[in-house]
Amino acid sequence: MTMIAQPIEMVDDRPLKPALRKGWSGRCPACGTGKIMRGYLKVVDECPNCGEDLHHQRADDGPAYLTILVVGKSIMALYLAVYLAWGPSPWVMITLCWTLALALALYLLPRFKGALVALQWSRRMHGFGSDA
């Protein structure tokens, strides 16, 4: 008797794109309503709306690396473009670029962290899938 292997059908009950959008906006990747952050970067242990456990997250340094990558590349491109177009004094360039870099980093860091937590939730990483 020969056995024929049949493909296992994958069920994607946690689609990635909606989860990333919810995480980017600071909302629970499961329900999209509850806030994922308490304060600036502290992830709540569970969603205040649906009760989804979020304490499994292991974002660690990932959001900081992504923020440094995006801010560094974009500010250096802006620095070069402004310098070549208008040639302002060094103090104007430093003030402009440091201010923009700080503002962009403060804006992106919690969004990258929320998206990374949502990615982990969606892909059932680090204990997020133990109940399924």
TrEMBL record:
Keywords of this entry: Membrane, Transmembrane, Transmembrane helix
Keyword hit for Transmembrane helix: yes
Residues annotated as transmembrane: 64-85, 91-109
Name of the protein in its database record: DUF983 domain-containing protein
